[in-house]
Design brief:
Elements (H helix, E strand, L loop, with lengths): L1 H16 L4 H73 L9 E8 L8 E4 L12 E4 L2 E9 L4 E5 L6 E6 L5 E5 L7 E7 L9 E4 L11 E10 L5 E8 L8 E5 L3 H8 L4 H10 L1
Antiparallel strand pairs: 1-2, 1-12, 2-5, 3-4, 3-12, 4-5, 6-7, 6-9, 7-8, 8-11, 9-10, 10-11
């Protein structure tokens, strides 16, 4: 026993100071690994069974939720179809052209240009797919930005927060028409030069107004986060958080616009030209 104790102490000291026993430890570990797996087999089997049971329960709950969602969406689709029919009838009665439906091109992000002074995305489709400068880019949250440059097989879009983009918007709560500008260093969009008595407040949702024709009406744009009143100048500045998430997704939709609007609104194909048209409107 004394010899074994002394040997153990010597091995502890040698192992702590030098790595001479590392090959022996590796060999012993490889030798006992099958026995370790055998001893842990009951535990692993129990974990697999519990995971399978939880997964089956999760799948059943998701299936039930999807069935409920399918029924609700079917009801909403029926209601939307009824409203669309009534809207079409009213437009015919009022002799108003229907511009609500637009074709869209699905695109994928190729890369994001490394530029601290601009916020852009480059997509994998261009003029050969019918994309033109000035066309709006959207995702499931709302407006992402606007196409500013097109090649035959790629297109470049400026995001909402880019200083080259301005969008005619309106407050969903009261219909107040405004112009939203990018270029805020904090990644927000701004509503500038508002009068002190303007009816806008934190929490308001901004949607596209449709003025100018480049952006169809009713697309979500941003949510007002802060309203600042400048007593010196007498103007009010509102800052808003975009509702789209270009940093999360790789796929987006580009909405096509009419050729007449392209030529009249985009001009040279930059977002600043579209901005100028919107300001004139």
């Amino acid at each position: 026993m004394l010899v074994l104790v002394i040997l153990a102490l010597v091995l502890l000291v040698v192992d702590a100071r030098w790595r001479v026993l590392e090959p022996a430890r590796t060999a012993i570990s490889m030798g006992i690994y099958p026995f370790e797996r055998l001893m842990m087999a009951p535990r692993d089997g129990l974990e697999h069974f519990e995971n399978w049971r939880d997964a089956a329960s999760h799948v059943r709950s998701e299936k039930e939720a999807l069935q409920r969602q399918r029924i609700e969406l079917a009801q909403l689709a029926t209601h939307a179809a009824q409203l669309a029919t009534e809207n079409e009838q009213l437009r015919r009665l009022l002799n108003v052209p229907d511009t609500a439906t637009q074709e869209a091109v699905a695109v994928q992000v190729l890369y994001e240009p490394a530029n601290v002074f601009s916020q852009r995305l480059v997509f994998n489709k261009g003029a050969s797919s019918g994309i033109r400068p000035g066309m709006p880019v959207i995702d499931e949250g709302g407006v992402v930005g606007q196409v500013i440059r097109v090649t035959p097989f790629t297109s470049e879009a400026a995001l909402l927060t880019d200083d080259k983009v301005s969008i005619p918007v309106q407050v969903l709560r009261n219909g107040q028409r405004l112009i939203a500008f990018g270029g805020n260093p904090s990644g927000k969009i701004e509503i500038r030069y508002l009068t002190a008595d303007v009816d806008i407040q934190a929490g308001d949702t901004l949607i596209t107004s449709g003025i100018g024709g480049l952006f169809p009406a009713g697309l979500p744009v941003a949510e007002i986060e802060a309203v600042e009143h400048d007593t010196a100048s007498g103007f009010t500045l509102a800052r808003a958080r975009p509702l789209s998430h270009p940093e999360r997704y790789r796929h987006f939709l580009i909405l096509r616009i009419d050729e007449a609007l392209e030529q009249g609104g985009s001009g040279s194909g930059s977002a600043s030209d579209a901005e100028g048209m919107n300001d004139d409107d």
